[in-house]
Specification:
about 80 residues; 4 helices
Length: about 80
């Protein structure tokens, strides 16, 4: 078995990966309040510090973690609903 061969994704894999990315982007956009901005900021590369996020979004630095948890819980609900709709 050749283990040095590069992995090539199939066209179907690419289509499904793009579909998943689109569904996640749409679900993030549908989140309430400042969740879309917070989740987007947390996925930047490189990720900003909590201090930078707090300044950008006008949030207390200590509220970012709990808000993040609530936003991600809501995102899971939206994605679960989309999956079984």
């Amino acid at each position: 078995m050749c283990t040095n061969l590069p992995f090539a994704r199939s066209a179907e894999d690419e289509v499904f990966a793009e579909l998943r990315r689109r569904l996640v982007r749409e679900a993030v956009a549908a989140l309430p309040g400042r969740c879309p901005e917070l989740v987007t900021a947390l996925t930047e590369d490189p990720p900003p510090t909590y201090r930078e996020i707090a300044e950008r979004l006008g949030m207390a630095r200590g509220s970012i973690g709990p808000t993040r948890a609530r936003c991600l819980a809501c995102l899971r609900v939206l994605l679960h609903a989309e999956r079984y709709a």
